[in-house]
Design brief:
Length: 305
């Protein structure tokens, strides 16, 4: 029977960073949060219907998630206010920064809610606690601002430092969402690294059904293939939002009469001709391929652009 080995020397403990990571990973399995998540995510989906407002909150117009850069505003303002609270004669400047941070938190909250409503359940569990921490921090800074306006500078600074402590915990969870759970990162295959230059045989064009998406494999990656008459459109199959299978999605025509595919998981919509994002929550273009059919009837593909 294998002997258990203690990797820690006697008298030592796991590093604090490891304990933080373990506790955060435990949140991913906290199924007790699911009832609250179902209620809130249903409300978010009913309120934010597909359209230009929802797309703007996700960051579709700029091609990147809007929430992460917007969080820099309140975090930067409140951290600066904490520094000034340690410097004599900066009362008014600190008060202004606290107020500016609260104003900057509004768009950060709205974009965060939009993104959170289109995440996997494990991500939503961490995101819910992250949101609770940021809400608590905002309430503490609101109390700090009120106290400062009332001339109770000592209480205002105390509320501010308390809010900053909670803020750091909330941003830690936000980092876990972004870097460990890859919320907001593109999940599409990295075509430039996985597909050599030039044309590649994919399949027989005659075997492709007309108007019905299928999946075919090219080397290490799966491809979404759609034939419409004499035209064949090919994208990578893993949705750039959270890797949903596009070949299982719906085929629609948008307002410009372009053929699009709707991801079956979270509704991201891509133009099949070039992989452009039509509607979020995806913000990254879906990698697309040029196609041609040889005289022998073989469909060949190469990465677009």
């Amino acid at each position: 029977m294998p002997r258990r080995v203690n990797i820690f020397r006697r008298g030592t403990r796991p590093q604090t960073s490891a304990r933080f990571a373990d506790a955060t990973e435990a949140l991913e399995q906290a199924s007790g949060l699911d009832r609250t998540i179902r209620v809130l995510s249903t409300a978010v989906r009913r309120t934010l219907r597909p359209g230009p407002v929802k797309d703007a909150l996700h960051g579709v117009p700029v091609g990147h998630p809007a929430h992460p850069p917007l969080t820099d505003v309140p975090v930067g303002m409140w951290l600066s206010a904490a520094v000034l609270d340690l410097v004599p004669g900066t009362r008014r400047a600190s008060q202004t920064l606290v107020a500016a941070g609260l104003a900057g938190a509004v768009p950060a909250v709205l974009t965060g809610i939009a993104d959170w409503g289109s995440l996997h359940r494990e991500q939503q569990r961490v995101g819910l606690v992250h949101a609770a921490g940021m809400a608590t921090s905002s309430m503490l800074y609101s109390a700090s601002l009120v106290a400062r306006y009332q001339g109770r500078d000592g209480a205002g600074r105390a509320f501010g430092f308390a809010g900053l402590s909670v803020l750091f915990a909330g941003t830690y969870l936000g980092g876990h969402l972004a870097f460990r759970q890859a919320a907001g990162a593109s999940h599409a295959e990295k075509v430039g690294h996985l597909v050599p230059l030039g044309w590649h045989d994919l399949c027989s064009a005659a075997d492709l059904p007309d108007g019905w998406p299928v999946t075919r494999r090219l080397g290490y990656i799966n491809l979404f293939v759609l034939r419409t008459g004499d035209d064949v459109h090919v994208l990578t199959d893993r949705c750039s939002h959270l890797a949903g299978p596009l070949h299982q999605g719906r085929i629609i025509t948008d307002d410009d009469a372009d053929v699009c595919v709707v991801c079956p998981w979270h509704g991201s919509t891509f133009r099949v001709a070039d992989g452009a994002v039509v509607h979020g929550p995806a913000t990254a273009r879906q990698p697309a391929f040029e196609t041609r059919v040889t005289e022998e009837g073989t469909l060949q593909v190469r990465p677009l652009g």
